[in-house]
Amino acid sequence: MCVDDNVILVISDATPKTTPNTTREVIVVKENKTWEEALEHCRDHQYDLVSLQSEDDHRYARDKIQEATTNEVWTALRFLAGQWLWVDGEPQQYQNLPLCPAWGRHCGTLPKDHSTQWQIRDCMERRNFLCKSNP
Asked: Where are the beta strands (DSSP E) in 58-114?
């Protein structure tokens, strides 16, 4: 059985968007924060952590994160209630994520290099993050 962190999190009730993330403003925040602090920071500024739905989204985000001061940046990917999801309400469609991640490793990062699509990290680690504007 997979045990989730005891976290209360408000997930955006936004309906899935038809425009790709690349049409919205995406910014790299060069402050080192935990995953939850990063989410709060984005939402306090009328943004959200970025979800990456397509190859175009990934390429755009990888270009943007070259500005980051950490080797990986937080994204909206989170393991909650026994499943991986994007906390901004976008559908999560990746099949290669662990079904039961190691304790505490419930948050997704995007690495600067092109070695992997995702890294699963401890949500309490501190790193830069990507925010996207809300429509």
From this structure: 72-80, 83-86, 107-111
